[in-house]
Specification:
The complex is a heterohexamer, with 3 copies of chain A and 3 copies of chain B. By secondary structure, chain A is of the alpha+beta class. Chain A has a single domain, classed as GHMP Kinase, N-terminal domain (Ribosomal Protein S5, domain 2). In chain A, strands 2, 3, 4, 5, 6 and 7 form a 6-stranded mixed β-sheet that branches. A 4-stranded antiparallel β-sheet of chain A has the order 11-10-12-13, sandwiched between helices. Chain A has a two-stranded antiparallel sheet with strand order 8-9. In chain A, helix 3 packs parallel to helix 5. The mean pLDDT of chain A is 94. In chain B, helix 2 packs parallel to helix 4. Chain B has a single domain, classed as 2-Layer Sandwich (Ribosomal Protein S5, domain 2), CATH 3.30.230.70. Chain B is 27% helix and 30% strand. The two termini of chain B are 28 Å apart. Chain B has 4 helices and 9 strands, in the order E-E-E-E-H-E-H-E-E-H-E-E-H. Chain B is an alpha+beta fold. The chains are: A alpha+beta, B alpha+beta. Chains in contact: A-B, A-F, B-C, C-D, D-E, E-F. Chains C and D meet through strand 1, helix 2, strand 13, strand 14 and helix 5 of C and strand 4, helix 1, strand 8, strand 9 and helix 4 of D.
C-alpha cells in the first residue's frame, strides 16, 4: 500500500516563488543553467574485496555501488542467461528523511527502474553469464547504497551502476576431480561483458520550467519528475514518471528533448571518469 | 509458461489474438457492484479483470494526517488466483512499486484539498491478469472514484502501448508484454490533456516513444468515453448484474 | 496472540432489543424466518485462466473462490496423496472493518475450518492427486477472496469452495524424453475427483433464539455462533464454535437440529446452482 | 513420526495406552509455581504438559482500551521442544487460531466488566505435546485465573473426545488424534452447564456428535473437581514443589 | 537497531543507596555474601519426549532447557561436524517486562553468548555428530525457555544447558534397504559426547562493589555487569560485558578473580546435581 | 571461503600479513564526509572500512522518550557488498547483538543527561569487512560523535585482540579471526581508564585474558591519539577528499 507522504518537509510557498523568480531570469540557486547536471565525481574500485564498486557524487548526492558475483541457478524461463539482482538502500546515514528498516517504496522504485533499464535493453551480456544451461549461472548482485541524499538518486545511481559494472571483474572457476564446479578466486582479471552504456536523465517540472538534475530543494518544490534512460544511440531504454503531479503532452515532448541533450553530458562525464580510471576497453 | 509466438504480426497485419495494431481488446465496465464500498468498479480489457473499491474520505490516523488535504492510500494487489502460477498474497516489490505509481497518478486528479485531515482509500485488486493490469487498474479507479462521488478534476484511464515485430501496438496482452520489445503503460486524463503515469520497459527510439504517447492518448480518449457511458447508464439502471456473474 | 476486538462497532442496546422484539413475533429484519438462509446466487467459471472458480452471493456477502492446481511434492507423512492449501483473504475491498495486511485470526480461522472440513472427511479424493508416490503430487490451492462482507463468511465460503471444486479442471501433463514430467496445458477437460458434497451451516444465538445464516447486524448483536458442516448423509464433518459467548447443552442440541435441517436447504441450492451451470456428473 | 497402530481398541476393550474408552489419562495439577505471574498453573494429562500464567489486570494501551470491560489477551504457544520435530517459535496459523478460540472460551467466563480499560493476559505455553493440548491449556487457564484471584463465573476445564475403531473415547492422546476418525476438543464450565469451546476435525454422526458432548461434560465435571481440590490444598500448603521437578 | 531501554522500572535513588549501605556492612538484601550465588536447584529429564531437558532454579530465576536432535546437513565450512543451534525465549510468562513477539536483543545476546561458549571451546564433541561428511549430520537444538525472571539469566541458562546436555540421549538411526538413513527411535540410550564442563559467572558492579549472581533488583541498580565463562581448568572460554556502564582496569581484574573463585562454587553445585541425578559418566 | 593458513606466525615472528604481534594494521581516519549527518567519520583498519553517521539530538518519539536523558539509538549494519558472500540487508542476530553491545559501550561516554527527551542516532555501516568490524565501528562512532559536537566524556576506540599459534596478537584480520584460537574485541576510553565493551570468543587462560586487556589498552591509546590528530587537522583543512575516493 502506498500513502501520501506525511514526513516530507512542507515547502513554504515563498521559497517556491523565489525559485521560480530566479528561473524567470534563466538561473538556478546553485548558478547552473537549466540543462546542466551538477558536478560529478566518479571513483571506481573503492572496495578491494568486491567484484566491482564505484563511489559517485552528483553534487552532494553520494551513492556507493558494490557488485558481488556468486554462483547460482538461472531462472527456469531463461535457462541460458545469468541472473541480475539490483537492490537499493536509502540508508539512514544519508538523510534524516530515511529511517532504518526494510526497503520502502522509494528504494524499491529506484532499484526496479535501474534493474529494468539494465535487463530488457541487455546492457549486460546475460548469455555470457551462463555456466551450465538450466543449471549453473552467475548471479550479479548490484547493491546501491545511498550515503548522502541531496536529490536525484536515479541519475547518481545509474552512473554508479555503470561505472561499477565497467570495473567489475568476474570470479575464477575451477573444476574439482568430482566434476563439481567451484569458485577458485573471488575476483579474477576477466571483466564482465557489457553490451552498451546507458545513462539516466532526471528532470523536474517546476511551474512551466523543466530543469535537469534537480537537487533536493528543487525536488521538494517540483510539481513532478521524469526519469528517462538513454543508450548511446539516443534510444530510450527506460522511463518513469515519478512524483505526484502530471504532464501535458507538450511538456512531455519538451522533457524528451531536454533529457536527450542532457544524456550527452552524462555520457561525456561517464566516459571521462572511466578513462581517468584507465579502464576503457 | 506461455510459449513465445513465432510472429507477433501476421501477413494480414493482425496480432496474435487477431487484433489490428491500433485495436483495443473488448472492454467491459461496471460500477457500484460492491455494497459496502463507497464506490466500486469492475473493468475488463479482454481477460484482464480488475476490481476497484473506494472507502472514504474518513478521518485520518493522527500520525499520517495532513492539515491541508486528504491523504490517498492506494493498494494495487494481485489475487492469488490471478496469475499463471498461484501468487503468494504477500505484497511483492512489483506490487509496492505499482501502488506508488498509481497513487502518484491519482494525486493530481483527486480534489484532495476538499477533505483535509481525511484519508481516501483506493483498493484495486487484479482478479485475472492477462497484460496491462496497472492500466486497467487506473481505469477501474477512475470509475470507482466517480461512483463514490469523490470530486475529481476529470475522468482518466490507462492503456499499455507495446512494440512487437517492430510495430507499435495498443493494449498489449500478456504474450505481447512478455516477449515483445517494449511495454509502455500510460495513464492520462484526456479532457485535461494530462498524463499522470508512464513507465517504459524495453527499447524505443525517441520518435517511437513520442508516438506511443499519441497512440495511448487516442485510446484513452475512447476509454474515458466508455467510462462516461457506463456512469450515465448506471444512474439509470441501478443494481444491474456484474460481468463476473454473466 | 489474540486480543478482545476493539474495532468492532458498539451495538446500541436498543438495537439488540428491537431485534429480539421482532424475533418474539417470529420475524427477522429482512423478513426471513429463523431457519432460512438469505438468497443465494452461485456463478461458476468466472475466471477463465484458473482451474476452477466460483462467485457466490449469500445475501450481500460475496465470496470469489479461485482454484489453481500446480505440480508439487506430497507431504512426507502422506506420500500417496495430493496436497491441499486453503487460504482466505478478508480483503479491504469487502468492508471498512478489514485492513490490508497479513491474514488475521479471523481469516486464518475461516480458512482452517474450510480446510479441515475438506481434508479429514476426504471430500476431495486425495489419492487421485498423486502422480509419483512420495515424489510428485498435485497441489490444490483454494483461495477464498471476500469481496463484500455482510455476515456469515463461513457458509458463503463453503458454497464457493464446493461449487468451484465441481467446475475444476485438472491440468494436463506430458512426459519429456528425459523422463521429466511437465505441465502441458494449465487446464484440461478432466474434472477433479470429488468424493462427497458438504455444506456449512452457521447459526447465531441471540438471546434465546437460534437463527440460521446471520447477516452482519445479527452477527454483531449475537451472543455467539456455531458453524456445523454436514455431508449429504447428515453426518457432521466439521464444527466450530466461533464468537465470544457460550452455549448450554440444550442450546447445542437445538443448534444441531436446526443446522441439520438447514443443511438440506443449502444442499438444494447448491445442487440447483450446479445444475444450472450444467455441470452435474 | 509415530506409526499408525493396527488396532485402537484391543479385545479387552482397552486403548493403545491401556485405558478404557471413558478413562482419562493421569492428571496432575499445580498452581502458583511462577513467582512473577499474578497467577499460574501447570497441568498435565499424561505426557501433555501445559503451563499457564496470568498477568493483570493492568492498564490497557490506549489504542486497544475498552471503556466498559477488560480486554483479554490470550496466547497459546508451543515451546520449541514440545513437539516431535523441533518447532520454530514463530506463531503458526494453528497457534493463531487456537489463541482465538481459547480467548473466546474465556470471554463469557471472566468477569471482565469489573476491570474497564485494563488488559488481562493469559499466556499458555505447551511444554510437551501428546494430544489434547488446547483442552489442557483451558484447564490450566482456569486454575491460573483462580490462582490470580481474577473473578470468574465458574471454574472450567477441557477435554478432547475422539473416535477410534468406531468407538467414542475420551481424552485422546497424540496417536489417537493423528490416526483416529475424529477429534473433538470441548471446553466447558459444568457448574453453569456452559460450553465455551468446541471444534470438530473428522466425521461424526449427529448422535455421536451429541454423545461426544455428554462424554466431555462428564469428564470435565471430574476435572473441575480436581481443580477445586488443587486450589483448596494450595491454600493450605504454600510453595510446594512443582511436578516439573518431581 | 538498539535503543536505550524505556520500559525498565526507574530505580529510586534511595533504594540504590540503601543497597550500598548494606554492602558497606558486607551484606546483601538476601543475606548472601558478595561471592555466593543463590540457592540452585537442578532437575533433569523433566520432558519425556525431548532428547534432553533440565529445569534450573537459581533463586527465583527459572530456566527450562529442552534439547531436540534432528537429522540435517553440516555447514559447508565444517563438513565433518554436527550443527549447533541455541535459542533463548524470554517468555511473557516469566516477567511483566517481557512481551510476546520475535526474540529481542536481550534474548539474542543470551543465546549467542551461550552458543559461543559451547562452540569455540568445543564443549560438545562436534566431530562425533557427523553421520556422512559433507552430507548428513546431527543438528542439536538447544532451546532455553525462561519461566521466571529474577535476574541473572546467563548463569541459570548455562547451568540448564550443561545439565540438559549431560542427560541428552542421541536418536537411533536405521539404514533402509534403499541405503537411505532414517531415524528409528527419537531417543536411544546413547549419550551425546561432551568434552568438558563449563559454567558462567555473572557479576554486577554496584558502586565500588562487585557481587556474584545479582538478583533482579541488583541487576536494575547495577552500573554494569560482566559474564565470564570458565572451564574446569580455570580457562576463560567466553566473556561478555553486558549493561550500560563501564569498568576500570582495576575493576576488571577484580571481577576476573571474583568470578574465577565463584566458578568453583557453580561447578560444585553442577556436579552435585548431576550426581543426584545419577548421571555421571 | 578463505583457506586456513598452515602457520599464523612465521619463523621471523611475523603474522600472515607480515605484521608483528603487537602491530596494528594501517589505520586511516576521516571526519565530516557526509553532508547531511550532524557528524560523520570513515575509519579503516587495513581493508576493514566502517562509516559512522550521527543524527540528533532530536526530539524523541513520545513512546520512547526519557525524562532525564537522551536515548541512544545505535545501528550496526553490514552493507550487502561488505562480506565474502553477498549479505542480505535484513538485520541478522549477529547485527542485533552488536548493535546492543555497541550502544551499551556508548551509554557511559555520551553526556546524555544534557539532552533529556531527545534521541541521538548513531548509525554505523560496515562497507568492507576484514576482521574487527565492531571495534572499527567504535572508533568511527567516537570520531563521528566528536564531529557532531555531541558532548562526550572522552574519545574512545576499539581493537580486537586475538590468539594465534599460542601468541596474543593485536588487531586481528579476518583469517586470524576465523581460524585463530580466540577473538576478543575491546572498546575503551584510555584517558578515563574505562573499558566499555568486551567480548570473548574462544579460549584464553586467566593470565592471557588479563594480558589481552593490557595489549588492547595500549593499542587504543594510540588509536585515540590518531583520532585527536584527525579532529585537529579537520578543523584546519575543511572538506578534504575522503579515503573512499583516493
Amino acid at each position: 500500500m502506498s500513502i501520501t507522504p506525511y514526513r516530507v518537509p512542507v515547502v513554504p510557498k515563498i521559497k517556491r516563488d523565489n525559485y521560480i523568480k530566479l528561473y524567470e531570469k534563466g538561473f538556478r540557486t546553485d548558478e547552473r543553467d537549466f540543462y546542466t547536471p551538477r558536478k560529478i565525481s566518479i571513483k571506481t574500485n573503492v572496495l578491494e574485496k568486491a567484484n566491482g564498486s564505484s563511489l559517485v557524487k552528483l553534487g552532494n548526492t553520494t551513492i556507493l555501488a558494490g557488485i558481488k558475483i556468486e554462483l547460482g541457478q538461472p531462472y527456469p524461463d531463461t535457462p541460458s542467461e545469468g541472473v541480475l539482482q539490483v537492490h537499493a538502500e536509502l540508508s539512514p546515514l544519508a538523510s534524516s528523511f530515511f529511517e532504518p528498516g526494510p526497503p520502502d517504496e522509494n528504494s524499491i522504485e529506484l532499484s526496479r527502474v535501474i534493474d529494468r533499464s539494465l535487463r530488457d535493453p541487455r546492457v549486460i551480456d546475460f548469455n555470457s553469464l551462463i555456466i551450465n544451461p538450466g543449471n549453473k549461472a552467475w548471479v550479479i548482485w548490484i547493491d546501491l547504497y545511498a550515503l548522502n541524499y541531496d536529490g536525484n538518486l536515479f541519475d547518481a545511481s545509474m552512473l554508479a551502476t555503470m561505472s561499477a559494472l565497467y570495473t567489475t571483474r568476474m570470479p575464477e572457476l575451477e573444476e574439482l576431480e568430482t566434476g563439481e564446479i567451484k569458485i577458485k578466486n573471488k575476483v579474477s582479471n576477466r571483466p564482465i561483458k557489457i553490451n552498451k552504456r546507458i545513462v539516466s536523465v532526471t528532470t523536474a517540472k517546476i511551474g512551466k520550467y523543466i530543469i535537469v538534475d534537480p537537487n533536493l530543494d528543487e525536488e521538494i518544490i517540483s510539481d513532478t519528475r521524469s526519469v528517462l534512460v538513454f543508450d548511446e544511440e539516443g534510444n530510450i531504454v527506460g522511463a518513469q514518471k515519478t512524483g505526484m503531479g502530471s504532464y501535458t503532452m507538450e511538456e512531455i515532448n519538451n522533457t524528451i528533448e531536454i533529457s536527450s541533450k542532457a544524456s550527452q553530458v552524462y555520457f561525456k562525464l561517464l566516459e571521462e571518469a572511466l578513462e581517468n580510471e584507465k579502464l576503457e576497453r | 509458461m506461455m510459449a513465445r509466438p513465432e510472429k507477433f504480426i501476421d501477413e494480414s497485419g493482425r496480432r496474435v489474438d487477431g487484433r489490428l495494431p491500433n485495436e483495443l481488446r473488448p472492454i467491459k465496465m461496471q460500477v457500484g457492484l460492491l455494497k459496502n464500498a463507497n464506490g466500486s468498479a469492475l473493468v475488463e480489457y479482454g481477460l484482464t479483470k480488475v476490481i476497484a473499491a473506494i472507502y472514504g474520505p474518513r478521518e485520518s490516523q493522527k500520525s499520517v494526517s495532513l492539515p491541508d488535504r486528504a491523504s490517498l492510500r492506494v493498494r494495487y494487489h494481485m489475487a492469488p488466483f490471478s496469475t499463471e502460477e498461484r501468487k503468494n498474497p504477500v505484497p511483492t516489490r512489483r506490487e509496492i512499486e505499482l501502488s506508488k505509481v498509481l497513487r502518484e497518478s491519482l494525486e493530481p486528479i483527486v480534489m484532495t484539498n476538499y477533505f483535509p485531515r481525511t484519508t481516501i482509500d483506493v483498493f484495486v485488486e487484479v482478479l485475472q491478469s492477462d497484460g496491462g493490469t496497472r492500466t486497467v487498474a487506473a481505469t477501474a479507479a477512475s470509475l470507482a472514484l466517480a461512483d463514490a462521488g469523490i470530486p475529481i478534476k476529470a475522468l482518466f484511464g490507462g492503456v499499455a502501448v507495446g512494440k512487437v515485430d517492430g510495430v507499435l501496438v495498443v493494449d498489449i496482452n500478456e504474450v505481447e508484454d512478455m516477449y515483445g520489445d517494449a511495454d509502455m503503460p500510460i495513464v492520462a486524463a484526456p479532457d485535461l490533456n494530462l498524463v499522470t503515469l508512464y513507465q517504459l520497459n524495453g527499447v524505443l527510439s525517441k520518435d517511437e516513444f513520442q508516438e506511443a504517447f499519441d497512440i495511448a492518448m487516442n485510446a484513452i480518449t475512447g476509454i474515458v468515453n466508455m467510462e462516461k457511458e457506463t456512469l450515465k447508464s448506471s444512474y439509470q439502471v441501478e443494481n444491474k448484474e456484474g460481468d463476473l456473474e454473466k
